[in-house]
Amino acid sequence: MRNSVTILFLLLSTTLVGQINSNADEVMTTLRGASISKKITQTKTIFFSNTKKQDTIVLTVPVGLINQSTSHITIKSFDNRTIYSESFKTYYFMRGVFEPDSIPAGGQEIYKAYINKYVISLTKEKFEDYAKDQINSFLNDIEATKLTLNQANSYDGIANKDVYKDVIANPNSKVIWIPCFECDEGVRCFAYSTKKAKAVKFLESD
Fold this sequence. Notes:
The protein is built from 6 helices and 10 strands. The chain is α+β, with helices and mostly antiparallel strands. The strands form 3 sheets. Strands 2-3-5-6 form a 4-stranded antiparallel sheet, with no helix packed on it. The protein has a 4-stranded antiparallel sheet with strand order 7-10-9-8, with helices on one face. Strands 1-4 form a two-stranded antiparallel sheet.
């Protein structure tokens, strides 16, 4: 399990860092024992490696404590090959739960007190419901558009120039984006490479 300092760095905006007291920090670290009671499997079919036959994206979240378990995302091709696979901390789905919808006007001390009170008010049930909502919607917007690629200048770098050029040049190319699970808000764009016979990352941001 990650230590609390790392969790704060990865999952909260920088405006929250330094605002959390020890009681709130414990809530953020333990999630009050929030867990997944039944294995969750989400699937989505998309045209990705083939323009006529669909591949299947599978998200698997295991039974167990949310702050300790590991989830998986896999892409199976239409002919049942694994063309992408990644494991990540289930805690990823909790990013955002500690940020209130609004904050009161006032100085730093008022803000700090409000944030701590808000975090401490979160219940085990709230964490579990929030996690399930995030899991259930995770695959909804996984398909990227050409507009996303045209905004490449806003990304830190093109990870694979050859694949990027192929994607831009081919109007039939399909692209998906997957979050950078260890980053604050980053995403990565993937396309299918016929040469490597798998999904290849070609664009990313932090």
